[in-house]
Amino acid sequence: MRLVVARCQVDYAGRLTAHLPMATRVLMIKADGSVLVHSDGGSYKPLNWMSPPCTFAEEVDDEGVASWTVTSKTGDTLRILIEEIQHDSSHDLGIDPGLQKDGVEKHLQELLAEHPATLADGLRLVRREYPTPIGPVDLLCRDADGNRVAVEIKRRGEIDGVEQLTRYLELLNRDPLLAPVRGIFAAQLIKPQARTLAEDRGITCAVVDYDALRGLDDPTDRLF
Amino acid sequence: MRLVVARCQVDYAGRLTAHLPMATRVLMIKADGSVLVHSDGGSYKPLNWMSPPCTFAEEVDDEGVASWTVTSKTGDTLRILIEEIQHDSSHDLGIDPGLQKDGVEKHLQELLAEHPATLADGLRLVRREYPTPIGPVDLLCRDADGNRVAVEIKRRGEIDGVEQLTRYLELLNRDPLLAPVRGIFAAQLIKPQARTLAEDRGITCAVVDYDALRGLDDPTDRLF
DNA sequence: TACTCGATTTCGGGG
DNA sequence: CCCCGAAGTCGAGTA
Description:
Two copies of one chain form a homodimer. The first copy, chain A, is an alpha+beta fold. Helix content of chain A is 18%, strand content 45%. Chain A has two domains: 2-90, Protein Yojf, Chain: A (Distorted Sandwich); 105-218, Trna Endonuclease, Chain: A, domain 1 (3-Layer(aba) Sandwich), CATH 3.40.1350.10. Chain A contains four helices and 13 strands. The longest helix of chain A has 14 residues, at 159-172. Chain A binds a DNA duplex through strand 4 and strand 11. Chains A, B: It is found in: Cytoplasm. Chains A, B: It is an enzyme of class 3 (hydrolase).
């Protein structure tokens, strides 16, 4: 990892073209040759960058002006003109053990598969990831009356998820062995537009409390 | 902008929880207090981070071990335990003039508005961003027979775009002054699933060549 | 301020 | 290796 602070100008040509006028920025060159151009603001996304795999080349002209050319296999190029270097250092970081996450959609699906009754009284799981020709339904259940219920789970319930569940329901209801199948749209947060569309289509909305679900979960599981 | 290279351990708690075991990493602290944790690989996304607005606090315990706590207003916290610092420097970058882009969806829409006939013979533009209650249609046109055509434009044509166009068409066709309205789904690349869904719904797919369109464009526009 | 939508989205998993 | 869906998505434009 090489860290450079310098006045520079950046030009990118690839899926689009982009230009950064001359200014002072932080340049990060990773071990794999990838480059990140950061300013002192914004979020985690760099102003410009080149993703690996790519090759990094440095050249200096007659007047001592350095320029870097970073090229990917797909023909994308990132060209950086260096006007003045304020800092330049290299560091050996080794390989990173990587990030461990908890609380993503998969966990939500696991918890709801264990506790389907929190979505509707008497709901029982038939199958997780129930396959259809257009992709798997998150949960297929039966309600207290024995009728099938398809559950679509999202962390954030938006219009796309309702459309997705609608497609599943249309397909499932074509199967006389399954029909009638109704739908439950379950999410930690459901946007108003999504709720309106869902209810307009006879789909029930269920707001899910992740922490409460975790509390329901067998406590011996997390004594690790 | 402060740049630190250190052995550290990172814990995040917010919308999810995440943990990074002790290892050597680059820590970037921006002027607004936001923090990025980078390893020597991956792409531009940090392993972990805190977005602004947030507050950065540094403390050192009795044994000289430093720990940082970064807190956002929404209650998210990023905690970094520093074991050993290899590098620590600060730099004044000033404000960045910002990025100039060309070749995004907006430009594609502008070009197609100028050359609608590349989508279908005899197609003429009625209006760009034609308003409907659920949002504007990218292009409303008339075909050679005088019938209306709604055009949805994407850089990458995926299933969402087809759903979006379907909703527009349903609405537009309710208006007896406009109906019948057919649809064209235009994109630089159309995914197979999206094409299947579109054709199933009687929507025409059109693959668009951005560079060729630019070539059609008035050359006097780009003489600089 | 809140919501919607595009993005060089990136990233990870499954076929 | 491609396809697809999730993301602590971020950020810009608009109502």
